[in-house]
From TrEMBL, chains A, B, C, D:
GO molecular function terms listed in the Swiss-Prot or TrEMBL record: hydrolase activity, acting on carbon-nitrogen (but not peptide) bonds, in linear amides
Domain of life: Eukaryota
Organism from which the protein derives: Zasmidium cellare ATCC 36951
InterPro entries documented for this protein: FmdA_AmdA, FormamaseFmdA
Listed name of the protein: Formamidase
Family annotation (Pfam families): FmdA_AmdA (PF03069)
Length: 412, 412, 412, 412
């Protein structure tokens, strides 16, 4: 009856090595032991570290971004056993609230080095870079990209239930086939299981070894369970319906974002932070079959920041790449071109390309698939809210080049 | 001073063969003669036929959809000379209004046969199908998909200025290369110039022959000028900034839509109609360079139909195809999966797959690029507004299979 | 099936004297003969003259405003018999569309002279004034108040069914009591029946005489039937539920507005225009008792112009009048003060008080009752959208006095 | 740079008697000593008790509501000295966040007895009543009004700077005149200064005595400083501009609301709670004159809960009272009628009138002044969001009377 505060299912300690903490893990595997139990219909608070487990500092150098160890990410909180949940059920995750930790009101957006992680535009922008964001209630701003301030649409980047052994096997097989098929490409197209730096919460050495060999990496979202979907609208008041694959669901959550743009294009692109999420869990028996779901669905919450439709500039991009080559209905190519169009436009105000690249990753930009059938061109659009800038970026307004300082770069 | 009505730059006659009308054309080419002249800063009304030029009827058979002649489309109104416009300028197109023709308050959505046009899901849904929509002021409904009614976000599918000879050459070269590179595929990946049924307005035989050989087809949008962008939000009150490539701009417009979903997935997927668009034209001298634009941008209008964010169901899709094959950050594959997830969900209410396929093409669904960096999976989302249905499709609501009748099919 | 246009139940002729036209009337009375019949569930278009029946011209003088004859207003189109409607039913009026007449794309906002009509602020602003608005699709602007442009939320000011003889008697009695009780005030507090210039459509002399004696004036909205509610949000896509008091409902509509602010403070305050409204009529049998309705209700349409909540400046006003006198929870006094606060603020930019008074009457300003229980002060708020101005009126922005020209005044 | 949490300017202790706490006070007076100092441009957190200082319990009886001691309210936190603020300046209060106390996630809505406080409808509903609300993240629900859940638009009911001696004198004079003029009414029309239970924070006995004699009660908002404006939209991200009347501004805040409806009709009508508000303070030198402000203005924040305009039912009310008496343009009478119309409508579902009265006070209902010039009727509207109910209250939906339990009443 609301007379007391909500129970914490986990509290984090930011001063300890994330890789030693019993309530964190960094792979998907059914054998990672539960950290605790949550009742059906119970509401709990769950604290999360930032996705790198503290590798990135509140400073003005991107050396940490350059040197990030991707075998350690993402540190998720859990897994939690949800009472009564069984395979075939749906777990209704009612996100009642998400907040930064009160004592750490800041976050970061990064560009990884092309040779260590990369990002959506790494062929063009291969260098590491970083911006630190300060939170002011619902708003944020950064000393590394002056002239910008916006309300965060705060959300978890990752949530999901553990895969069953069969589902895990499917993942590993199909991603290995891709890696094999793409061996000629000079880039990672997927990340296979990796024993190095694997962390399995309270799991013993034998489990750790097994998870190291088999555990799915947390980087991609996957259709069977959701995971790292990076959906910017999954914010306060949203409801997600997650398929359950194992007894007790084994739910995990992490990678909290203060804000993100559609696509999260710089990879470490959201405003990454440590924080606390309040969730009510409800088990829907046999929900997967009853609703015909092969992947999660969600209903966004009622409090999205409102920019009138007339307060966006929309950029258009097509599946003709920067070398003039025509691609066939390729929305990925089109969206990359759309991003480049924004960079070309915003450059006029004095921003560096890296500043804009960072900004597009984390500001509440709208990425739409406009047309995907008009052969041979896919057309995507990207809407930039005019009101996040403290000067007027409208096409008709006068343009003045300003001193926009610099984002953080790595030392050379 | 508004004491009289606005000038019509063109009025259409729906009873005549579109291929004979002096104010229509169906290819992009700089040599198609202007139909008339519009002053800088002038506002005019321009009437348009539907994109097929009347090939589709208001009836209950999809035979016309099956037999559509794609060499004839799209019939655009124009080109119009815009006074003072020169290459390098931007043409600001202020869409003051779009309406159906008062005497023809209906439109159509179609699925083409896989072997004649196809669509985004034609591997799975190869048959032709059709729905006829009746307009009731700002709303529409159809006897072919019962239980659905929504306000249209009415817009032009195609608008653009004529390419210069150089731009046209670029288009033809790069699309020919794609066709050549994809010759092993058993489908059209692009449409080369096509003399058959070419129409050049008032152009003489020599021009007709030239345009037949060189004229770019109207199907794809293209980065240099926009064209068939099929952007569902380009509605009443929107402003588009179009690059000018030739003297006088040679602006054309057509393919009016009463409504469209992001992606327009069934290809003939919007609610296609004849109608009238009111545009104010303004020339922005040297705008292309001043704004750093390589493609059009636009600012959406202030009157988009409002569904609260809590009134959508969002479906998630990933770049793992229906055969379980993993694709690398392929947003096109992901969006196709997202569409299939919706079909699986809505089937429960008694709709046929083709009814849902048609509905997803034309209803105001929101297609977003959620994550495009989490290797190997791109994640896209598709939001379906709950309030367009006259029963409750929420995940928690009781499900009842209804008699949903049928969309129109072709005779066999 | 939408193959033809919608039937016109009435078309207006702006060149004729409104007081002679068979489809118009200007009083509420059950004996005014029907102009025609509309089927239950039928959709029709109904054209309307402006509320003054053409007394106001598109020019730069407010002489016509000064000399307006208020015995002639409002000219309503109808009444229409709605088949099957009986007393006790509700008439569901589905407003599918409202548009200005295509050949008359302009409207007017006026301030009446204090001694002939007056307005909400006539103690302070007693002079007649006028602004002429030009329509550009969904937007409007005026040469009389430079720097302002906005999308109209187009709606009918008046719609309702005829009163029964009993209801009419109630109105006349209760308003006569008010007039009698306020005889000491030096202003009209209500308008009694008035034979002069009464117009009853096709009604014979005997009816005219009777209506002249008994007919209710059209100026106030009234709880029993709605009437002149001047609700700015009753726009395209809205549904109104109107009580039926007589056989056949005898529905009338008029006083179309291109836009209005909450309160319509200058009395002739909306952007008044001639136009056409498309309505679907549905009779709900016994609806008054079933829904427990004593007054109309409505559901607003889905396409209201969107200004983000952060794009308004809200002014506060309290029930302490301009002489410093404290009133007891008087929302009317509070709202007048709120209006004055806006005038004081906007003066800084060079507007005259009369220009702002006109603007507040017709722009889409939001008038809210904030607190009405905190004795002795009622608090009301008025939100002015920032984005209707082409310069920045935000509190933090630099203020520059401009040459704002003049609204139209009367000759002296 | 955001590396640490935000400073608390005051923390509350809910276990102590509010009337003894040094950081609280319950009158407006310039001599109440400052509790501390806040720098210009500083951001602080300020905790607040509920407005009654803990007189109301989380239980199922309204005895506490009946017995509430109104000489003790409202307990405000402060006053705080804002460095550099002087009379004539504006204090920009940037509301960065408002939250309930983490350990007290509940609030209350009450109806006072007519003879002890009363409310907007107390002639009709004179009995005390109460509902306890439980908070679930951004949403709330209550065991006392089943079937309802909504997102709070969380805000402070009261904020303002201390009056100067001159301003205070103005208040006391003008309110005394009202009390004197209304001595024939059998109700309190205003509350004069009251020595009983006066609390002045750390102030000595002499100050306490002076404030008891002269201090303005906190119940009304007042034009000169704002105060108890009860503006439901003054939520997270809003900015308020407050006139400064004394050196150091002496800012106070309290009466936090989880949600409120326009009008807050039951007087104790918002969802009252203890909580914490995060504010950034900025002094704008000479702002009162520069902006021409006689009363505060505000800009609402960007995250208002979104109900589409088509998701409200709007009720209309007119200035004809429940006895059929006609009032002259009286928006207060009209709004009372509008409230009664909602009660009549919602009764059909099994709610008691008191349950609806409570709900209208605290749910995010929209109260608008529609028309205020159409003599003799003012017309107000009240929009009830359809989506706060877990069943369909649309006019067309089937109506079923449910067992809606009961709100809390007082023992007899």
């Amino acid at each position: 009856m609301g007379k007391e505060g909500i129970r914490y299912a986990a509290k984090v300690d930011l001063d300890k090595d994330a890789g030693t903490l019993p309530y964190l893990h960094n792979r998907w595997h059914p054998d990672i032991p539960n950290y605790g139990t949550i009742k059906n219909n119970e509401t709990v608070k769950i604290e999360c570290v930032d996705w790198t487990g503290g590798q990135i500092g509140n400073n003005d150098s991107a050396d940490d971004m350059r040197d990030v160890d991707l075998t350690r990410i993402h540190y998720l909180t859990g897994p939690f056993e949800i009472e009564t949940a069984e395979p075939g059920d749906l777990l209704l995750v009612d996100i009642q609230d998400v907040q930064p930790l009160e004592y750490a009101p800041w976050g970061f957006t990064g560009v990884f080095a092309k040779e260590n992680g990369g990002g959506f535009l790494d062929e063009i922008y291969p260098k590491p870079a970083k911006a630190i964001w300060d939170f002011e209630g619902i708003h944020c701003s950064t000393r590394h990209i002056p002239g910008v301030k916006f309300a965060g649409l705060i959300h978890p980047g990752i949530l999901g239930c553990a895969p069953s052994a069969e589902v895990l096997e499917t993942w590993n097989t199909r991603e290995a086939e891709l890696i094999s098929a793409c061996s000629h490409m000079d880039r990672d197209v997927a990340k296979p299981p990796e024993p190095k730096n694997v962390h399995v919460g309270t799991g013993e050495a034998a489990i750790k070894e097994k998870v190291g060999k088999e555990g799915a990496r947390t980087i991609p979202g996957r259709p069977e369970h959701g995971g790292n979907c990076d959906i910017k609208n999954l914010s306060r008041g949203s409801k997600v319906y997650l398929p359950v694959h194992v007894e007790g669901a084994k739910f995990s959550v992490g990678d909290l974002h203060f804000s993100q743009g559609d696509g999260e294009i710089s990879f470490c692109g959201a405003i990454e932070m440590a924080g606390v999420i309040t969730i009510k869990f409800t088990v829907i028996k046999n929900g997967v079959a009853d609703m015909g779901l092969k992947s999660p669905i969600y209903i966004p919450g009622p409090v999205e920041p409102q920019f009138g439709p007339g307060r966006y500039i929309y950029f258009e991009g097509f599946s003709v790449d920067e070398n003039g080559k025509q691609h066939y209905l390729d929305a990925t190519v089109a969206y990359r071109q759309t991003c480049l169009r924004v960079i070309e436009y915003l450059r006029r105000y004095g921003y560096s390309d890296y500043q804009i690249y960072l900004l597009l990753s984390c500001a509440p930009v709208q990425g739409h698939i406009a047309g995907i059938v008009d052969i041979p061109n896919a057309c995507t659009t990207l809407g930039v809210p005019i009101d996040i800038f403290d000067f007027d970026i409208s096409p008709g307004a006068p343009v003045q080049k300003r001193d926009m300082g610099s984002c953080a770069y790595a030392s050379s």
